[in-house]
Amino acid sequence: MTAGGRLLAVLLVIVGIPLAAVPVALMYGGGSPPAATAPAPARPAATSASPSPAAASTMHRATDRTGDRTASDATDAGPVYTKEIALRSGRSYDLHTTVRSGAPRPLVVLLHAYAHTAADMRDISGATPFADEHGFVLAYGHAVDGSWNAGTCCAGTNGQDDIAYLRELVADVARRTPVDRSRVYVWGYSNGGMLAARAVCEAPDVFAAAGVVAGHLLVPCDQARIRMMHIHGTADTTVPWRGGWSDYVHVTFPDARTESERVTSSSTVAGIPWDGGHAWPWWATGTLWGFSQQWSGTTALPSTR
């Protein structure tokens, strides 16, 4: 597709025109980032190389919290409410919202990269002020030891059930603040993006759409219709968009341009290439929101009987 065609595809997403069953191969190629056609978060300050999982854990504990305040302390439309929430399973997440009652709102679950933290994801994505501006609830996931089980990367060897974790997270958020369960979306960066892709495939009854940045779909995805947007830098060598071996995580990745071949024919899979490396581009948050808010409704998992 030409640069003009890619930009048109981006514009269609932003203004809310559905992209029906668009093969990724038709939209992937070279090119520069799309023009900013929707409100975008501020560019984060430059960051250093990814920290180790141990360092990431330390960074996470240093993030700001609201002390002992509980969800019931948040006012209906009062000050911004951000709190680390402990789940019954023993895991946790960060909840960001401004309301505890009233009309249900969309929920975005945002998943950080390998060896990163929820605090890193807030800084990289600019999603917190964006959520306040656009009226959705935001939950930042916490990976175990800094990595997510997305299939073959990156915590698959320890067998942790991150899909069960995401189900528990969404249910817990919905108990604390009004959530429109037909408009729950999952986005992720790098290893977090890989889990976001897995989640929309394996939990389409929970997530209406997914956003993947610098990640890959690593699991079979032929059970149900999905909606997914994939943003990837063509110069990415950490998670190569054309696939192949990664020295960073010691995994062989598939070619992103073949994703449409691994999902049902009724699925919508939109791809946006850009000529960057392994990064969350400054325009990604606004673009993912423009795509996600088109979709509502979940898909029941097929019967196993």
Walk me through the structure.
- With 305 residues, the protein is of the alpha/beta class.
- It has one domain (52-292): Rossmann fold.
- Helix content is 25%, strand content 20%.
- The protein contains eight helices and ten strands.
- The strands form two sheets. The protein has an eight-stranded mixed sheet with strand order 1-2-4-3-5-6-7-10, with helices on both faces. A two-stranded antiparallel ribbon has the order 8-9.
- The radius of gyration is 18 Å and the shape is globular.
- Mean pLDDT is 74; it is low at 1-78.
- This is Poly(3-hydroxybutyrate) depolymerase.
- Residues 34-58 have a biased composition (Low complexity).
- Residues 61-71 have a biased composition (Basic and acidic residues).
Write the layout of secondary structure elements.
Elements: H1 3-14, H2 24-27, H3 53-61, E1 81-86, E2 92-97, E3 105-111, H4 118-125, H5 127-134, E4 137-141, H6 162-176, E5 179-189, H7 191-202, E6 209-213, E7 227-233, E8 244-246, E9 251-253, E10 268-274, H8 284-292
Parallel strand pairs: 3-4, 3-5, 5-6, 6-7, 7-10
Antiparallel strand pairs: 1-2, 2-4, 8-9
